[in-house]
Amino acid sequence: MTPIKKILVATDFSENASAIYSFTEEIAENFEASVDLIYVIPKPLYLPVDIHAVTLPLDESKEKEFSDKMKAQLDSEMQASIPKENRGKTILKSGNPADEVNACAREGRYDLIMIASRGEGNSIFNKGSVTEKLMRISHVPVWSVLKGNDTGIKSIVVPTDGSAISLEALPLACKLAAKRNAKIDLLSVSKANFTHIMPGDYIPYTHKDDAIKTYILRSLQEYLSEQTSTLQFEEESVSADKNFRLLDEAGNSVEVSIVVKKGDSAHLAIVEYAENNAQMVVMATHGHSKLASMFVGSTTENVFRNIKIPVMTVKPEFVR
User: Fold this and answer.
1) Domains in the chain, please, with CATH?
2) How far is it, in rounded angstroms, from Cα 281 to Cα 274?
3) SS (H, E, C) 211-275
4) Keyword ATP-binding on this protein (predicted)?
5) Using an 8 Å Cβ cutoff, are 116 and 144 in contact?
6) Share of the chain above pLDDT 70, in %
């Protein structure tokens, strides 16, 4: 399991973007990590002439002046927001924000990217323009938060369809849970079978809850037996209908339960359960097969767009 020792925090200096710092401070302290801040000047850079007027591109001297101002503001934000013992460097780039953050994270061999779900402005249409693309392209885990999210994470939801690919989010979730004494819910969604609707209020489901729980547990057992990390069951005998504990490589114990939520939409079922029972979701960007991305246009993407608690996405090994 990769340690968290280098964190890259992306900012646009907005009030919403500053929401990430309370989470950054805690995780940096817990893992004794170094934190670097990055700001990307969008290209082409425009100077607003009037709020209702057409904007004009900056000339070279104005662009240099703006860059110097942004670098000073970035340095100031580092001093104000990151504890001295965790401060790294400030990085100023220009170009497409998501592309530049991704390139920096990859070249700098960072272990985690932290970013606000919404940046400048608070419109729902702003949510995801940069963060969502970053989740799509980054090989580094991406942790996104909203302004007002609770840092007191005591329960983490890890959605899974039982595939080894979806379970690749579990080791990192355990790492975070162990530092917070939090529990983990492995959440699977039982979809309604609308091809066999019965009269009245009865809605048939494709699989029974206990069968799904047994399947998830067996999948977990197979995943842990085949993976190279030292994540393992604390006890030899475990049951799908009872909570059990996993040990991470440091010997920390994390409580885990298998939960089945009924619903005709996977992402809505995940969002509803997580917002009512947890403070964070950690999920893989891909699902049940290597060819079928769970992110592009489907579950992970829709969870991110709709949920109001922190989300961390983890890219499976086969696409890194």
Assistant:
1) 6-46+61-145 (3.40.50.620), 155-307 (3.40.50.620)
2) 7
3) HHHHHHHHHHHHHHHHCCCCCEECCCCCCCCCCEEEECCCCCEEEEEEEEEECCCHHHHHHHHHH
4) yes
5) yes
6) 80
